[in-house]
Specification:
Layout lengths: L2 H9 L2 H10 L10 H17 L10 H20 L4 H21 L1
Length: 106
């Protein structure tokens, strides 16, 4: 196996992703981040989906799901201006954990 094949197998889709990232302009706002845009779409979808939840759950499951959903892009936005890697890691980790919480609720 050639070295280039090893890299492709080891990194999977990461190499293409890395090449694409180099073509994108630097984000000037958290709204320029693709991860934030996807999280925002998730919030809109969560609100649409939760409209179908039982009305008895309006102040329980529905509220918790909506709060969790909105927390994801909020943490990504808050992370955007953080300078240190530990701070950035912490906010992205919170966003990831909240996404998992949302998945459990669904």
């Amino acid at each position: 196996m050639q070295n280039s094949e090893k890299i492709r197998i080891t990194l999977g889709g990461w190499r293409q992703e890395s090449e694409d990232r180099m073509k994108r302009p630097v984000a000037k706002s958290f709204q320029d981040l693709i991860v934030w845009q996807k999280a925002h779409q998730f919030v809109l979808s969560a609100y649409r989906q939760s409209e179908n939840f039982s009305k008895k759950e309006m102040y329980g499951l529905t509220s918790q799901f909506r709060r969790a959903a909105i927390s994801i892009p909020a943490n990504i936005a808050e992370d955007f201006r953080k300078k240190s890697k530990p701070d950035k890691f912490r906010f992205m980790n919170i966003a990831q954990g909240t996404l998992l919480k949302s998945a459990v609720i669904i």
